[in-house]
């Protein structure tokens, strides 16, 4: 018979596994490779660095445009607007 702490540990492991699966399902870069990355930014048409293309498979925005997009999305959420 398992005791309370064993059951709690098992349940915690289940929650972690579920959370990781959920994250993978909603990750836009899941399954993408460097070949899927754009060479030029979709926002400003400037070249995307090779380091960024390798770090973020499937990237379509340069760092500056991605930073601005994230800021605008956060501002919209703070103001209760749909993103």
Largest β-sheet summary = none
Helix/strand-derived class?
A: mainly alpha
Q: Overall pLDDT, averaged? A: 86
Q: Hey, roughly how much beta strand do the residues contain?
A: under 5%
Number of strands: 0
Query: Low-confidence stretches at least 5 residues in length (pLDDT < 50)?
Result: none
How helix-rich are the residues, as a percent range? 40-55%
Structure commentary:
With 83 residues, the protein is mainly α. The chain folds into 2 domains: 30 residues; 51 residues, no CATH class. The chain is built from 3 helices and no strands. The longest helix has 22 residues. The protein starts with a helix and ends in a 5-residue tail after the last helix. 4% of the residues are buried.
Concise summary:
The protein has 83 residues and is mainly α. The protein contains 3 helices and no strands. The N and C termini lie far apart (49 Å).
Structure characteristics:
single chain, 83 residues, mainly alpha, 2 domains, elongated
Secondary structure layout plus pairing:
Elements: H1 4-25, H2 50-55, H3 63-78
